[in-house]
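The aim of this short unit is practical: by the end, you should be able to scan a pair of folded records and say something sensible about each. We start with the first protein, listed as its amino acid sequence and then its structure tokens.
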Amino acid sequence: MRFTRLTIMVVLLGCFAADIPLHARQAEEKCDGSTVDEQGAQTAKKARAFLADLQAAMRHDDRKKIADMVSFPVNVIYEGKRVRIRNRQTFLARYDRIFTAHLRKAILDQSAHCLFGNANGEMIGNGEVWFSELGDGSVKIITLNPSVGS
């Protein structure tokens, strides 16, 4: 009887062992400040999905997809100077100037687990990108700051 219980316990532990590294990694990852989880489950889910889509578009250099993810007019801060880009055409023309190596790295390195969120929206990196849920329920980029932290 004891052998049977022990065998069952070993088998059960083995079944759950595959999940341990993922959960352990997330528990070990330290997040500074507020996270989107404090904004509610629905907001956190939408924000993480948006981040995943943005990272995928960035990895594939899908500029048109990224332009679709922007709320126009969008604030872009170049070296401390704020510029409002009013439309998609201008955004795409300035894409290379906006999406510097530093900004692309900030987007790609952002952890979904430690995504910052507050009443202003969600923030990637140290403020390089801000996005938020709009009144129509869509989530869009509202501010880009390629020079922060570089």
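Turning to the second protein, read its sequence before its tokens, just as you did above.
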Amino acid sequence: MSLTILHPATVHFPIGLLILASLSGLYYLTIQARKELLVLTWWPMLAGWGTCLVSVFTGIFDQGKLPPDPPYARLLDTHVSTGLAVLLVYGILLFQRWSNRNKATVGDPVLDSARGLTRLWIGFLLVVGAGLVIWAGWSGGQLVYKWGVNVR
């Protein structure tokens, strides 16, 4: 199986998982701190980050097969940049969770201990992360449906 087939097949997993994680985390932070929302925040975020890593790897591999100076180069750069930014934003959140895993709290070591600016910062990262996922998905859709990139 070629990697060209794997990139389109794997991009949908991080989109769904990371948006679910952001929405659940934001709900936990702003509306109701329910334990179930922690499961819907951290596990999908970890799975989404891992599948995003696979999608980025296969996408970069596919990019090497494209013409050197295509008319959609700016859109492609946007797609690659937003994909890498998604990895960074959710990687920061996961690292924060991992580095605080031994703190003794009843609920969540990151979301519950977040007060004031830290709470805003985490909420901001969740919103930015979801926005980047949507932007990367939109630009990828434009590459496929408008420009026919890697469509056989």
